[in-house]
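The instructor's notes for this session suggest beginning with a concrete chain rather than abstract definitions. Hand out the sequence below and ask the class to guess, before any prediction is shown, which regions might be ordered.
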Amino acid sequence: MTNTATSRTSKDSTPAAIRHDWEKEEALAILTQPFNDLLFQAQTIHRAHFNPNELQISSLLSIKTGACAEDCAYCPQSVRYQPGQENVEKLLPVDRVIEAARKAKENGATRFCMGAAWPCPKPRELDQVLTMIQGIKALGMETCTTLGKLDKDQAKQLKDAGLDYYNHNLDTSPEFYGEIITTHTYEDRLETLEHVRDAGLKICCGGIVGMGEQQNDRIGLMLQLANMPQHPDSVPINLLVQIKGTPLENVESTDPLEFVRVVALARIMMPASYVRLSAGRENMSDEMHALCFLAGANSIFYGEKLLTAKNAEATRDRDIMGRLGMSPSKGAGGSLGSITTP
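After discussion, reveal the predicted structure:
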C-alpha cells in the first residue's frame, strides 16, 4: 500500500525535505486529502524537525496604536474605520518600552515583539525604535518588530541595532489581496521582505484565514511563502477577528477544521519553520488548539492582548498546555509563568 504522506510529495520522497518548488496541484492534493491522513503527514514531518511537545512563546507590545493611514479591511487601527479613531496612542517613550521588556523578561520571556501602526517608519520614529532595540538587546532578549514597509537602508539600520526578527505578513494570495488592501501592493510587501532578507534579518511572515477568501487563495498564500528563497523562520497563521466597524465585521465565520487544514499545509510545505497561532485564539476552543498543535503549530503569542485584539488568557494557555503535556521551548519563550502585557 502506498503511504499517503509520501505519495503526496512526489518530487521528494523524504517527508521532511525542504523545498522551494511547490506547485498548486501538489498543495491542493495535500490540503484536500482525508483529514486523518493530512494530520498524520503533518505530524510526521513536524516530529522530524521539532519536539512535538514544546511550544515557542513570544510576547507582543503595541508601541504605536491607531490612526494608521492604511486601509487593511481587517484592521481596527485604520483611521478610515471607526475603531481606528479610538484609543489612539503616539509612539511610546523608549524608557516605557524597555521597562515593559524588562518585566516580560522577569516573567520568563526571552523574545520581545513590538508593533507600530503606520505605513512605514519616518526617520525620527525609526531612530526611537533603534534605541528601543538596543535597550532590549542589552537585557539579553531577542527582538522582533513589525513597522510596515521598509527600504534597504532602514532594514540595515535595524540589523545594525541588533534586531533579530522582522514581521511583515503577506496576508493572503496575490489574487485576493486587492479585495483587502489598496493602499500598498503585494509587490511592495515582497520588496520589503527582500530588503529584510538581504540585511540578514530573520523573517516572520504569514497571513490571515477567514477574510472571505477561497481555498485557492489559501493555497496561493502558502505557495508564496514556501517558494521564497528561504522559508520564513516564523509563519504566523491568524484567524480573522471580526471587529465591529471594519469592513470584514460580518464576513462568514471559518470552519474550524478548515483552519486546521491550513495549519497542516503550512507545516508540510515549510517543515523547519515555526508555525505560530496568532490572532483569533480567544475564539478557538481547547479542542481546536489541540488539533492545531497536532497539525504542526508550535508557537503562540502569550498575553491577553495582541496589539488591539484580545488574545487567549494566560491562565487558559497554561491549562491547555498542562492538559496536553506540553511545555515552553527553552530558547524561545522561557517560563510560562505570569507574563503580563502592558
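Then share the key points. Confidence is low (pLDDT under 50) at residues 1-10, 304-311, 331-342. The first strand starts at residue 54 and ends at 64.
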